[in-house]
From TrEMBL:
Superkingdom in the source lineage: Bacteria
Protein's name in the database: glycerophosphodiester phosphodiesterase
Similarity section: Belongs to the glycerophosphoryl diester phosphodiesterase family.
EC numbers on record: 3.1.4.46
GO molecular-function terms, A-Z: glycerophosphodiester phosphodiesterase activity
Example GO BP: lipid metabolic process
Gene Ontology CC terms, in alphabetical order: periplasmic space
Domain GP-PDE: 63-390
Keyword Transmembrane helix: no
Signal peptide coordinates: none
PROSITE patterns membership: GP_PDE, TAT
Amino acid sequence: MGTQRPNEETSGTGRRALLGAAVLGAGGAVLGMAGTARADGARPGGGPGGYGVQGGLKSLPKPTIVGHRGASGYRPEHTFGSYQLALDLGADIVEAGDLVPTKDGHLVCRHEPEIGGTTDVADHPEFADRKKTKLLDGVSTTGWFTEDFTLAELKTLRAIERIPANRPHNTLYNGRWEIPTFEEVLKWQDEQTRARGKQVWIYPELKHPTYFRKQGLPLEERVAKLLGKHRKDRRTSPVIIQSFEPTSIERLNKLVDNPLVVLLSSADSRPWDFVETGDPRTVADLVKPAGLREIASYAQGIGPTLDLVIPRDAKGSLTQPTTLVRDAHKVGLILHPWTLRNENPFLPANFRKGTDADAYGDVFGAYQAYFATGIDGVFTDQPDTGVLAREDFVGH
Ligand code: G3P
Ligand code: CA
């Protein structure tokens, strides 16, 4: 699996199957109609560990709106500016963050270890000699890598907009925010929960766990240690953990009790841990009933690409939904597909308006098509759009 995934960025146009029936109700589609009421009746602040801990996943509104890399449609991704805005815009969970390690073993929030496109590192002559070409999960990648920097060095950098062709307005904020650490995120989560009187959820993703383990920088143990330190490693903790590598989620399942989600890229892709261990299976195998049953033995959900839920035809328009939602729900797995974005290039062709790369298409129409499949939530770069779309949906 490379680092570029379907439904991914472009500047062109072109432990516990706890959820099971209790969460899913009589059927997946029912979730969408359950509205935004708390299913657990938990009172804010009740119980050890913070707000609404009794409910865990069950306390989340459905369909759940996940702020992808914060509110990355409006601010440079994986910054506290982006995370903060995601909450302000109504996200139920903030993807804070995609986690990669530093040379001295800290976890920081960047979408990829290569940070040339998301920071001003190229403008720092003192780091010019750190530019390298590496094989990252089988893909030759040139740039600057977090594992070659200490945390103190990374903290001298500032975040920039990754896709300015699609999001020119976001460049206004270039240079404003530094790279967050995961520990800062955990503290921010508590501060925001107190300030808002409402439990703030986060959804960190472990990036390239096999790649980093081979370099002596394993991610799972570091994440587990920090979650334990902050008492957020429990079944009801407001932290969902995700990874594209199933064996990483299996490993986490032995270390923490948090809800766990296996990410699934395109059907023909093969998780990188499978490549390294010689497991021949592809995502097409994992989405079959046997594959889903296996995932349900150590995870609570899957995060499929939207195309696995509703494939597109040769022109890029939506076709008919697959059986994935039904099949996953059958074995007690929730589904949080990715990623809905307002801009034309990221939408199915039949929901685009014109051809401008930074113009919005009919994203509300797209939301209704995906919500109708019975998905439990969705990652989006524009959480306010997602919240409005949910209102439309549950109001039907
Ligand atoms: O984590 C859900 C989604 O973010 C997966 O893709 O590449 O944006 O991290 P990516
Ligand atoms: Ca992610």
